[in-house]
């Protein structure tokens, strides 16, 4: 089988309100949609949403990588999956279900895309979409025969003022969300404490609250902040200190009264290995497929973390529907569904499609039972 047509389409997602994080303020996200057509007319889709601050390549580097790879893809013959593919080690290493027809996802594919993870994500996702369609199964089942049929998601709250944040939190709970995520750091701790206090008072003690510092605190600031915010029954804190400082993460884990999760640190391959080799540094990995170069390497990382006693969940890097659809399939295929994934961000965009199957309902995304990705 061959890829007979490949296209790249620009994508721009405008924010309803600018989203402020410790890394910066974002008014829009820009990237690309990849569409691949096989000789039987099936269309596979993938999305690239690069952003240097998130740990990917730049937009221009991404576009160049996509154009170079796709210009040659239609002339390539398909490559069989690695020898030994099947249940057990073969399935664990590749992340794919056994007994699949061949596509260009064999061992060593995409080596030239290592430096451009967003581009690699888009191409891999479109190929996996095609692969699942050919097999006649949802993408989640391609990734794991034990995939769950739905995933729980958190609501990301974007307001800055405490009273507006509390109002946003009440709306999210009314919509069925049981886990809320709040961006912190980049402002005085007393302001974040006032924001958390307003949210906790608004939603009560049963709702899970998690915070995300995006690496915005120095270690000394993080110690004080985690102590000041510990009275609000937090579920976890994502990336309290700079991504490169694994030693500070390890020391903070001895102070925090709630779990710490690594997010931006995972953009560095050498730090991923440090975190895996020292499970006490953090207990949870926050998986961004766009940053990690695709669904398969992300799933492999989650499985290795689980073998070492760590948990993981999937989150968006402020992506569009196509990338979030792939992330939802991936979340359903993770070893554990204990933690809500960060995929309920569609409300942040002005041009979010009105009706698509990956819009959360009552705080959950039901995985479509259609073959492939499930996005038309």
How would you describe this protein?
With 376 residues, this protein is of the alpha/beta class. The chain has 2 domains: 3-136, Enolase-like, domain 1, CATH 3.30.390; 150-366, Alpha-Beta Barrel (TIM Barrel). The model is unreliable at 77-102 (pLDDT under 50). The protein is built from 12 helices and 12 strands. Strands 4, 5, 6, 7, 8, 9, 10, 11 and 12 form a 9-stranded mixed β-sheet that branches. Strands 1-2-3 form a 3-stranded antiparallel β-sheet. The radius of gyration is 20 Å and the shape is globular. The chain has helices at residues 59-73, 89-94, 117-135, 139-143, 162-174, 189-203, 219-228, 246-253, 269-277, 289-292, 295-307, 321-333, and strands spanning 3-21, 24-38, 43-48, 150-157, 179-183, 208-212, 234-238, 260-262, 284-287, 311-314, 341-344, 364-366. Helix 1 (59-73) crosses helix 3 and helix 5 packs parallel to helix 6. Strand 5, helix 6 and strand 6 form a beta-alpha-beta unit. The chain is 35% helix and 22% strand.
Order of SSEs, N→C?
Answer: EEEHHHHEHEHEHEHEHEHHEHEE
User: What's the mean pLDDT score?
Assistant: 89
Q: Cα distance, first to last residue?
A: 22 Å
The percentage of residues in β strands lies in 15-25%
Rg from alpha-carbon coordinates:
20 Å
**What does the overall shape look like?**
globular
The CATH class name of the largest domain reads: Alpha Beta
Structural domain count: 2
Largest sheet: 9 strands, mixed
Put simply, the count of helices is 12
Task: Identify the CATH architecture of the largest domain.
Answer: Alpha-Beta Barrel
Estimate percent helicity.
Answer: 25-40%
How many beta-strand elements?
12
Q: Helix/strand/pairing class, anyone?
A: alpha/beta
CATH H-level superfamily of the largest domain: Enolase-like C-terminal domain
Contiguous low-pLDDT stretches (5 residues minimum) are 77-102
CATH domain topology of the largest domain: TIM Barrel
